[in-house]
Amino acid sequence: MTSGIAMNSIEFLSKNPFERLSLGDKLAIKQLGPDKPDIQIAQPTKDRGKTYIRTFSRGWYEKKKWLCGCSKRNTVFCFPCLLFRSSVCTGQGDVWSTTGVCDLKHFSERAKKHEQSKAHLQCAMKLAMLGQVNIATQLDEGYHVSVRNHNKEVDNNRHILSKLIDCIKFCGAFELALRGHDESGSSENPGVFLGLVDLVASLDSAMRDHLDTATVFKGTSNRIQNELLDCMLDVMQGHIIQDLKNTDFLAVQADETTDVSTHCQFVIVFRYIDKANTLQERFFSFKQIDGGTTAEAISKVLLQQLGVVCSAENDVDRERLIAQTFDGASVMRGGTGGVRRKIQDLYPNAHFIHCYAHQLNLVMQQAVSSVASVRCFFSDICGFCSFFSRSPKRTATLDNIVARRLPRVSQTRWNFHSRAVSTVYENKDVLLECFKTIRESPEFDSTSIREANGYCRMLTDKQFLFFLELFNTILSRVDILFAQLQRRQIDIVHGQRVLENFVNSMAKVRDSVPSIYAQYITDTPQRGGAPNLQRIGYEVCDTVIANAKDRFQFTGHLAAAVLVDSARFPEFADNFPKEVLAKAIHAYPVLNNARLQTELGLIYENPDFRACSSAMALFQLFCKNNLMEVFSETLKLLRIIITTPMTTAESERCFSTLKRIKTFLRNTMAQDRLNALAMLSIEKRLTHDIPDFNRLVIEKFAHMKDRRAKFLYK
Questions:
Q1: Using one digit for the tens of pLDDT, what is the confidence trace for 539-556?
Q2: Helix (H/G/I), strand (E/B), else coil: 354
Q3: Alpha-carbon Rg of the chain, whole angstroms?
């Protein structure tokens, strides 16, 4: 592409004669082949008193492979003659290479006559032989011997390179550092990669011979490692991009974190349904944000990546992006100047989803932050772990008596609070024994004895035990919901059900507060005395229920999920949800209102569909039974619902991989190398799913630059 003009176009070739171009450009044009645009020729013709219009059919491009066209001039040319027209084409044949043909009368006879001409055959032969060894050389027996020897050497080099690629894949899949402290021949710590190469060499004689005798290309240097990693990343990203371009709808998840080098790393994950009708969440890349975590800097990076898979300038592509899922930071969710708004300005169907796992954390934070005694309880829970973590002697006592470590508590992730609460609840008796042992042992210092005595009083305090049992009951429900929200396969319909189940289970916990209270508190609280724990229990449960209902409302574009909720099919069979359908059509204009209403009405009336547990189950039912054309609009709606992500869980998993790959000892890792290693780890199955993965990597590696070693066949 030169200044937006394709090199094989008539416009480019008319301005740049083919004979003046470099050999590289000539071969590139040969590789592109004839340009075949739509030609708008409308030629009125009279025949036997009848008038009709002749038009150019694209079928001619298939019948005559040498045809090319110019959409600006609305003419067709002969591609070989156009390239080699300088002294070959003369007379009538010159029209096919200079002005072009626009007269369709007797076009078939004229084309047949041209392709049989000597000038055309000479040009076609020159084009076919461009970049090839001349015919005389090819007919020489010595040349055939040299080609066989060359290809034999290429086979050996590709075999060696494939083994090196396998070693890198292994290191990437298991997140192992490739390089060692000293990679010299005498080093005792050459690194995992060189160690694997030596292991392969002990099992493969060709690899051993190569390592012992190679002088031009050994393949074990860090430069070759980086080039192979770049090629592997290109192949895997290219496969993902092709999948994204072929899918009907896609959604983007994004989040940011700070790595060990204090660089802001922005992760991009795409969610879509592939050609095998399987839901995929694919890691795409980490990007460093240079301008700070502002909406402008983040949206610039995100839009650049989105432009690779769905261009905002293409109307069809623009409508395919149907969701963007972020956390609740104001810079991301801002409705006027946030990233959400900047994306939606270019992709109007990209509706914002506030990660439901983040919202669940906010629900729990609001539930416990409003009551002072509850805040004190969780502060005390945090103290259990810190008490033992500060001293090996205390930890040894914990191991001997309790035989279980206490988990740390996170201020932002409530599943970590749940682990701490459940561990203390399940082991409160043995923990009490442990603290008594520390308190009564003369081997501990006064600080340990004093703190252990405080924990002994705490574990016998009725208010603490009441809160321990109450929050163990509450957080076990939160754990179940959190685990379900983290699943990759969850869709809006299933998410709506699990959230309703959570609210119902919290209502049951509220009803059980009096029984929990009666286990520990027997005295009636006096006026002005200690707070009524039963009232606090009710308040906590009511806050969780109210905030859950408020935050987890399925309104706006999410209301479309109601249309395929099988639990409501009997209700909709009697009273069709026209208002919900109107909201769905407004949110997603790609849906056909009339046809979708007809299809849904048929589904509602059929009792067999009422057993579907989720949108994915209904989608798979349609695909398995070849009902895609019968329920085409419903299938489109299901694709939208399934593709819409409810959480940024996959982004968080990518951050976990980032922390395992870019460690303190590997903090100078380049961004391209980080992306390649992260891709090999996160999408390790993709290296097996891509056909001939190693061959594709070798092809890219061979064409990356001119190499002294031979990797390309003749």
A1: 999 999 999 998 888 777
A2: strand
A3: 35
| Torsion, CA 191, CA 194, CA 198, CA 199, rounded to 10 | 60
713 touches 151 (CB < 8 A): yes
Distance CA 384, CA 448 (A): 12
Q: What is the mean pLDDT of the chain?
A: 89
| The token pair that represents 606 in the structure block | 């059929």
**β-bridge pairing 264-273 and 250-258:** antiparallel
- The rounded distance, in Å, linking the Cα atoms of 373 and 377 is 6
Q: Per residue in 162-211, pLDDT tens?
A: 999 999 999 999 999 998 877 777 777 888 999 999 999 999 999 999 99
Angle, CA 151 vertex, CA 148 and CA 153 arms, to 5°: 110
Q: How far is CA 47 from the centre of its chain?
A: 60
Q: Collect all residues with Cβ–Cβ distance below 8 Å to 473 and sequence separation of at least 6.
A: 509, 512, 516
The answer to whether 336 and 345 have CB atoms below 8 angstroms apart is no
**529 pLDDT band (50/70/90 cuts)?**
very low
Q: Are 360 and 414 spatial neighbours (Cβ–Cβ below 8 Å)? A: yes
Residue 113 CA, distance from chain mean position: 54
Whether 469 contacts 512, CB under 8 Å:
no
pLDDT over 60 (residue 515): yes
**Helix, strand, or coil (residue 656):** helix
Q: What is the pLDDT of residues 295-332, one digit of tens each?
A: 899 999 999 999 999 988 888 888 999 999 998 888 88
Q: Which two tokens stand for residue 319?
A: 């409508």
| 699 close to 690: Cβ distance less than 8 angstroms | no
In whole angstroms, give the CA distance from residue 506 to residue 484: 16
**Residue from 291, 290, 282 nearest 309 by CA:** 282
Would you tell me how many other CB atoms lie within 10 Å of the CB of residue 598? 14
Q: Which two tokens stand for residue 714?
A: 């003749």
User: Residue 134: phi, psi to the nearest 5?
Assistant: -60, 160
Query: Which pLDDT score, from 0 to 100, does residue 413 have?
Result: 62
Q: Any residues with CB less than 8 A from the CB of 293 and at least 6 apart, and which?
A: 256, 264, 331
Q: List Cβ neighbours of 394 (8 Å cut-off, separation of 6 or more).
A: 387, 388, 438, 444, 448
Strand partners, 272: 250, 280
User: Which amino acid is located at 519 in the chain?
Assistant: Q
- Which strand (E) or helix (H) includes residue 111? helix 107-115
When pLDDT is averaged across residues 226-230 and rounded to a whole number, the result is 95
Residue 227: other Cβ atoms inside 10 A: 17
Q: What is the pLDDT of residues 191-203, one digit of tens each?
A: 899 999 999 999 9
Q: Residue type at 450? A: R
